[in-house]
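FAQ: What does the model actually see?

It sees only this:
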Amino acid sequence: MKKYVLDSFALIAFFEDEPGAGKVAEVLQELLSGQARGFLSVINWGEIYYNVRREQGTAEAEKVLGQINQYPIELVAADQELTYEAAQLKAEHRIAYADCFAAALARKLNARVLTGDPEFKKFHHQIMIDWIAEKPK
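And it is asked to produce this:
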């Protein structure tokens, strides 16, 4: 069964109807139909919350978290093992720390990261990436 780690970039694009939202909708439909499994690091979950809250306010941020809960996406805690893996990735690459949690989780689960964030190009030899829009240059 296909496994996806959803990056905050992808979920924010979906909820704000940005470019790539259609691809995210397709993956969410796969999750709903049981054709795939979805995972989200609690770090990236928090990143979604603070981004939406900062841009659109508390009520909208709470609404988005409620919408995420309606999908069969497993929220994964940042335990010591996952944090260690993310920290190693951060030490090796100039990339946001939260993104390292998505990449570390994908490696741990042998899953694909669903994202549109160009920073993930740095991981293309280490993890499988499904781009929500055209692959960034």
